[in-house]
């Protein structure tokens, strides 16, 4: 038999789910699949399957899949590896559309039993009208569908995450939630015996709710298909951010022991990125920062950055990091300097050449900060503005800790009115007081749609790649 | 006249300080120099100078320097720039040994008046028996001497910071205090009209309390002297970490507008680092991470890293980052794998090839974690162990938030008994719960002398440079 046609609904919005291998120990199952799906707000029918239980967490339990009277769209297999092939046959017999094999212990282990079992489930799936997520993965997260693999934020957003790793997927979703990036859909697909990254990409190219796509890939069965599917998404205006893990030699070995994948050569992946315009990143944090830039920074007209902030040394460091990331920090003309000089003198700052130093830490100095933004935004000399705040400046300048809130007030009041994009660098606080204030500031900025980064490096890196993405789009 | 001989005591342990330009507004002066020195625990004589006040913050105030009856070792000038030359002449007349000019508005401004005034104070100092810190800088921080330029941690440690920037110095001291790095001495020296980085280095080479030295440099008057002074420190077993700001073109311009310094060429600085073995870093955070590695990681026998942690994807990413930073992550022999397999199977992990995945998130799994450390430390196959914990794993694995404390207990219980160095990567938490637990864990690890990093990149980067430093030492 051929493969069933893949529908977005079958993966992310099943109406009924069976949990094969639900624990009869309710305390344990509270944090198992049944408890997790109940917590995720799943509103369809949920069928825990366990031969020794009649009820699990308030739901009727079933001795086996075939004892369930209604249809089952989706099944989660949480069994010891040797029991998986038989369970898969049961799913096929029951007419289940999608099976998520949570169980690990297949090719990734590297022993004979694992390889044999993976081959067996591959061959069972291959000749049946069923689609498979996994094995060795966390499966699906979709707040709208009421489905998740952990107690994750349920706020929806325009980004979809496709991730071979499960721990990494949860971490990325959590990171994102602290930075204004919410995942409307996510899937962790592990060893990819059947469904692989191109399958998900092809679906998402047509998903109206998905505007940005992030991938964590260890290996790929069909590179040509991945290339075509990625191009399709980008042509449809959906940027694709990819963390391709396992590009160095030992990392390739680590990949094999993780999901059993073949990582592929560095050269091949370089060509892939050059040809598709997908944005290459190297850590989970970088995925999130790149999404922050994509979602919250309007397209800059070029690579010229104006830098505004308190602190001379930090300004110098910021300049250097921007330049190392292929951004430019041009010195201002005499005309712009004259405008700036009036403000910085009044505000206690001392640099007007670019970077600009203004005394945002002092009481009443916020007006100077705002004016500096307006001058740079209206000049023809920069394409975007990067501003940095030092959470501990209040210690140095003897002000009150809350001064940072006043600076954020000023920034949020002005940034949307400017004809140039703005990004903020605000490091984590280093004292108890500053940590809390920074956390609140991050939340306020993220919710207001202002791009915030924790370091100059992460900001400059994401902005460089953002601009490169648009430059690619112009060329193709 | 020639220059007075420079003594460490005159800079960091003055017995009497005059504050020329103390404010008669006590509320303002509370966060000014008088208040700051009182808060820093200065126990010598403190003389606020202001022609309009008789008492300031409980101290007798003096109309002018010459009205002070006793000797004055050290003077801080907080005056408008045009008044500085006259005040400097007064200091010379009074026999002050060291003057710190806090005032800015000299060469760094780029205008004629600034240049003229700086030239003037240069020529005054040049022909007198006095030493000058600044202008345009924060001056001295030395908890033991009861002197500081801000409300900074007063705990002492074996590191000294020499920094041209003031805001950066305060930030570095604060960053350090959250990571177990305490600065026994620090100096911000701004435009360096007289005292420059080599002067401080030469003093510190012989300071028994200084074991590690960090520098933030924008420019240097005498490169040959800096080279000799750096070599002297390194030969005496004191590693020198240098952030040379302003290596790119725009950053060189920014340097000029910050401290008026000439930044020098990238090539010249490359040669400097190659010849001295000083450790080159690029951000203030990196200074602190490098000090963490120097202070808390015993010398590894080589570049082979064993990685232990929860999460397959994160393990793959960690491997790749280590390799990109010139570390090696060799696959283990069958013998080591067999030992590990028993542990990981019992603990719910799945990778034994290097990286090792152990189920540290689960209750009772800490024993497996400890065993994995012992196996790697006793094998001949790695030189150091890098372990990573995911603060949000409790969300994914349904455990209690405190599991991380159990993992830290296990780690702190074992790391000092091992014959190999250990470093931990523990990212900031992303939820309210995890943030607090991570903060406590950071403090516990730092106080116990375990090297902790917030990211794989910062860890691998600092460890690479640590090993390179020792390799250099072996060659010379």
Description of the molecule:
Two copies of one chain form a homodimer. With 476 residues, chain A is an alpha/beta fold. Chain A is 43% helix and 15% strand. The first copy, chain A, has 18 helices and 18 strands. Chain A has helices spanning 8-12, 26-30, 33-39, 84-94, 112-126, 166-177, 197-205, 223-235, 249-259, 266-276, 284-296, 312-324, 334-347, 366-378, 393-397, 403-414, 432-448, 456-475, and strands at residues 16-20, 45-49, 55-56, 59-60, 74-77, 98-101, 131-133, 139-141, 159-163, 183-188, 212-217, 240-244, 279-281, 305-309, 356-357, 384-388, 422-425, 451-453. In chain A, the strands form four sheets. Chain A has a six-stranded mixed sheet, sandwiched between helices. Chain A has a five-stranded parallel sheet with strand order 2-1-5-6-7, with helices on both faces. Chain A has a five-stranded parallel sheet with strand order 15-14-16-17-18, sandwiched between helices. In chain A, strand 5 (74-77), helix 4 and strand 6 form a beta-alpha-beta unit. Chain A is elongated. The relative contact order of chain A is 0.08. Chains A and B meet through helix 6, helix 9, helix 12 and helix 15 of A and helix 6, helix 9, helix 12 and helix 15 of B.
How would you concisely characterize the structure shown here?
Chain A has 476 residues and is of the alpha/beta class.
How would you sum up the major sheet of chain A? Answer: 6 strands, mixed
Question: How confident is the prediction overall: mean pLDDT of chain A?
Answer: 91
**Number of E strands of chain A:** 18
Largest interface: A-B, 91 and 91 residues
* Cα shape of chain A: elongated
End-to-end C-alpha gap of chain A:
39 Å
Structural class by helix and strand composition of chain A: alpha/beta
Specify the oligomeric state. Answer: homodimer
Strand order of the largest sheet of chain A: 8-10-9-11-12-13
Strand content of chain A: 15-25%
Query: What's the alpha carbon Rg of chain A, rounded to whole Å?
Result: 26 Å
Helical content of chain A stands at 40-55%
Low-confidence stretches of chain A: none
Tally of individual helices of chain A: 18
